[in-house]
Amino acid sequence: MGTKRKTAPTPPRHRPAKRVTRSTTDNGDSDDQLDCLPTPSRPTRRVQFSTSALPLDPLPHPSPVKPSAVQKSPKKPNQLQTPSLSPPPRPASPTKKIPGTLPPHLHDCLDSYKRAILQNLQTPDIAHEYNEDEEDVDAPANLLASQHVADLLRGTTERGEGNSCLLLGPRSSGKTRMIEQCIAQLSQEPIVVRLSGWIHHNDRLAMREIAYQLNQQASSTLLPDVPDIADEDENPFIVSEPEALAGLDSIPTAHLHALISCIPTLPRPTIVILDAFDLFTLHPRQSLLYSLLDTVQSLRQGAENKGLAVVGLTTRMDTINMLEKRVKSRFSGRMIRTATPRKVIEWVNTAREMLIPRTQDDQMEVEDELAFKEMWKSRVEEFLSDNKTIRVFEETFSITRDIRTLSRLLIQPILALTPTSPWLTSNQLEKSAVTQRIRPQYPYLHNFSYPSLCLLIASVHAENAGYPALTFEMLYEYIRIRIRTSSSAPIQLNGRSIGMVKISKGVLLSTFENLVAARVFVTVAAPSLTIGKEFVKYRCAVHRQDVKQAVERCGQTNLRTWLNKGN
Amino acid sequence: MTTIAQAVSLIRLSPFPFIFINDITSPRLTTSSLISDLDSQQNIHTVRIDGVVCFTARLFFDTVINGLTRWEPSWEDDCANWSPGDQQTSKRYNDSFDAFLHGLKDVHDHLSKESQQPAKMVVVIENPERLKEGMPEVLVPLTRLGELSKLDISVVFVSAQRWEDIKPPLGAAVDPYFVDVAIPSKEAIMKQISSSFTDHLWQLPSSSSSPNPYHPVFQPLHAQYLSFVYDICHTFTDNPFEIGYIAAARWPGFVKPILDGYNQRQEEAGPDEEVELEMPSTEFIMRLTRHFKPSLNVALEQLFSRHTNAADWAAVNEPGESVLDQILGLPPSSPTKSQPNTDDEGMDEDDLPQIQSSPTRPRSERIRNIQSQSQFQTDYALPLFSFNTNNASTTSSVALANALPRMTRFVLVAAFLASMNPAKSDLRMFGRGLDGKKRKRRVMRTKKQTKPTTGPVKIPQRYLGPSPFPLDRLIAILGALIEENDVPDSEDMPEEFKIPGEYTDMEIRRVGVYASITQLTNLRLLVRTSPPDRLDGPPMYKTGPGVASSYDDVSAIAKGLGITLGDLIWEREN
User: Fold this and answer.
1) What integer is the mean pLDDT of B301-306?
2) Cα–Cα distance between B546 and B106 in angstroms, integer?
3) Do A449 and B544 touch (CB under 8 A)?
4) CA-to-CA distance for A197 and A280, rounded, in angstroms?
5) Where would I find the ORC5 lid domain in this sequence (chain B) (predicted)?
């Protein structure tokens, strides 16, 4: 994992290469991209042609491709085949001809691109909009932070220092990634112990895991590094594994301190990463933190001891206040902050980084592939400068700056790519924004079956009548009365009564139970043995406005009149 | 591209660590199709976890590890869990989440070694809401499984509930990639049903002499049949599983007339003549569907609410020999009914075990008549839970009425009244004047409150279910009921009872009454709400869940005793 990443030391060209090597062409590529960032002096050719007309893809739901039909057909006739409301196709740009459907020999390219992009989406790198020359703008927090952390870790590994720090930052602001990158850059490979507050609920679990991880990493490198066995005897961790693990069970927590203080005697420097650091502060007496930080603080530079760094990662800003006094006094107090992107443009750039996968240079690039790469690039640029796309990005950015949300937004458009509609469209992005961003509470409410809708309407009426806690009996009564009154009218349409269809109590009860399983109805009180299931109290989780909209949309007149008219 | 196919291609191309599939209609079928789609892909190792089955963390960890490696613990092997083959010592992967992660690493190494390429693992979890209830501490790490284990593993939750309902607090879990499965359309449902229920049943046209309902000749008919079933059922349910279940239950009966006709023709034909089993004509199919339409409605009612299972239902509702004649419009050749919906294998009235422990005997002819009328159907199984369909409710209450002694039935009705009526209404309902005449008191109907009341609205008792009452009140109401309905005529009255009501007074103090209350409590038709060791105050009871609390059932029982329940309920609308 770690060896994959190489970050250039200077911030503006900060582009951790996804695939190990980086060649001159690749650099040129990135220069090109940096140039075309939408800085004020940006009105470049691309912006102009993309705002003029947007080639929306006519096929949101692509059909399976027929190889015979996909010969490099010109784009225009293909679009005319399907009627669509999208704007007319963009007049072919003078330089490139981009087919609407993909010729068969490029299908593999598309597949590999999809794969690469999806991979990118899971390891997003924030592209910072930052230029060293502009002095009035602060450098992005993450760049500064990563320098800090790198310095700190270098101190530990190269000079044997004891260091402790906290990485603070909101979710998905790159805390874990940063620390992993910094570790990967270190000249000497340290022992890394990764703990997580979500797993290690108490100190004993954490100790066991520390022992396990130390054992895994230390024992493998022990022989080449330290040939003399004398060291081993002193070190309680380097026992054979089952013994150590078995022994740890019986070690009282009081001995923790002694064990942890032995960590610096290991043959290599150690970095302890505490994910969800705030949860470790909830452990009784914070003894693990105390031991770790005390060991860090009392570390004296000497030949025999290696360095130890304790890095806590947390989103909780007041974590330092949760430390006990004795723990806090041993903590160095270094708090390094990470942040999410500050501008929309950084999002867009990040999206671009993710959407244009870097090809491996040692790979033989066939001509087709190069052609596809060019087409893909220009289409991505179009996609990113499309008004709708920008709007979706801006909206999302104003809600959350979580990069993972951006990745999730982009997944669905990528998945929807097929040889018949091989390019990203902003329509797809819009659709995916609906499902991935702020989700509608019950997206398919209007498609609910007739008994379910009846139950929902009955619950609305019951609530109107002042009964917020519903029982099935109550809903059943409402529905029964309604069905009776509606069918009492002697009017017939086309030989059929216009009344509501009868529902038997058994069917209704089953439907009700399904809705309870889906938590559309939520129990108010815990069910007890002595209460029959028709008398258990529930509350309807669907808001009445949603019920109203759903009933309007479902198009059943009977239900609509019932909802509007009242009982 | 369906949503499930998209999810599959996402996993195939590059597994997103955490995917949440929300399917409100049929999460089970969705899980199955997801698993089968994933299994057809190369080098993806799946495991299906049910949150109901894996109710502890240990079970969960073991099931995941064993499932990914397709390891089945065997009894001879001491039911050992999977452990990597090259190591003699069996490691334990179920101690903690750490151990589980180590186990996953080992599994990954093992699988990668087997297939010579890095393995992808997918953990599909259905009913994840149960994990939240049972082991909330596992849920958060589970959503971050890929990050924690640093492996190519993705976790898929399939649930009818929304992620917002399951999500652990404090934003601890990462947000999943959401997949919403739409409520299926008709085509999707039909495809789903035919693929999951019957596709494997169609047999090759083998030499079997007796054709069965799954003869390939019927395959086109089955498609028509499915759409016919769908048309009937889709108003009430969208769940392909339920529709398929009903269709599967009715199919053998549906084809039976055709098979009967074939058998008849075979009998009529000579021994060496070959009779072809062929598709019936369109008109015949129409007659067939018309004939079976009502029985499908019955099937919907009983099978959708799982009052019975498909096999039993099919056996009970199997069409008789005469159905073919009915469909063809011929006069019935045999007098058997086509739809034996009811079990009429009742015992004769004389054999009925008459009320054994009742302290009272049926007095008047009227009562005797009522009783014998109600006993035309007997079913001695005592149903403790009300069958809610209309016909079933009467049968269950009739069965109950027959299983219980007469006095116990009075107690049951009294208990229902005590549970449903407010105590303050008792005097009006059952009170008598000094002259011994029952005052004619009309039942109070609930009136609309004219002025708005402050505070919470009073919910009618019939919506809330039974409320507890003290034993004394039950006895008092029982006395009133007996006095009204079960007093011996003046010539039957023993000499020593002079004062009106004295006889009833004696009856309700009998040990048998208390014994029947205990009996009802044992049957959970009554529920004692006060703890048994409390000494002060009378014990409190209420009617138990099921039959005893259902107005329809109790009123049927009351009718058997000659009581009109509707008149005695305080606030009965309509």
Assistant:
1) 84
2) 52
3) no
4) 6
5) 223-270
DSSP type of residue B349: G
Give the other-Cβ count within 10 Å of B199's Cβ.
10
B456 pLDDT band (50/70/90 cuts)? low
Q: What is the value of pTM for the model shown?
A: 0.78
Are the beta carbons of A450 and B462 separated by less than 8 Å?
no
pLDDT above 90: residue A274: yes
Contacts of B545 in chain A (CB under 8 A): 529-533, 535
Burial class (CB in 10 A: 0-12, 13-18, 19+), A84: middle
Q: Mean pLDDT lowest for which of A558-562, B68-72, B268-272? A: B268-272
Token reading at A334: 């270094």
Interface of B with A in 240-279 (CB under 8 A): none
Side-chain half-sphere of A372: how many Cα atoms within 13 Å?
25
Interface-testing mutation among B463, B527, B549, with chain A (most A C-beta atoms within 10 A): B463
Q: Mapping DSSP to helix (H, G, I), strand (E, B) and coil, where does residue A81 land?
A: helix
Question: What are the C-alpha distances in Å from A428 to residues A392, A393, A544, B428, B531?
Answer: 11, 13, 30, 70, 63
Token digits for A400? Answer: 């959350």
Tokens 């874990």 belong to A176
Set of chain A residues whose Cβ sits within 8 Å of the Cβ of B243:
none
Helices A557-565 and A544-554, axial angle in degrees (round to 10) = 150
Long-range CB contacts for residues A210-213, cutoff 8 Å, separation at least 24: A210/A260, A210/A272, A211/A237, A211/A244, A211/A245, A211/A248, A212/A241, A212/A245, A212/B98, A212/B102
Sheet holding B44-50, edge to edge: B44-50, B120-126, B153-159, B18-23, B177-181
For residue B541, give the nearest of B458, B460, B478, B479 by alpha carbon. Answer: B478
Residue with tokens 């099931």: B63
Q: Which residue has the tokens 């940096």?
A: A34
| Nearest chain B residue to A439, by CA | B178
| pLDDT tier for residue B354 given thresholds of 50, 70 and 90 | very low
Torsion of CA B287, B290, B291, B293, to 10 degrees: 150
List the beta strands (DSSP E) in A243-390. Answer: 270-275, 308-314, 334-337
Instruction: Report how far Cα A38 is from the mean position of its chain's Cα atoms.
Output: 26
Cα three-residue angle B20-B24-B25, rounded to 5 degrees: 130
Q: Which residues contact B37 (CB under 8 A, 6 or more apart)?
A: B4, B5, B8
- Strands B18-23, B177-181: pairing is parallel
Q: What is the ipTM of this complex?
A: 0.81
Of B99-108, B254-263, B331-340, where does the model show the most confidence?
A: B99-108
Chain B contacts in chain A segment 485-524 (CB below 8 A): 501, 503-507, 509-511, 514, 517-519
CA distance B34 to chain A (A): 16
CA-nearest residue of chain B to A314? B172
pLDDT tens digits along A181-192: 899 888 888 889
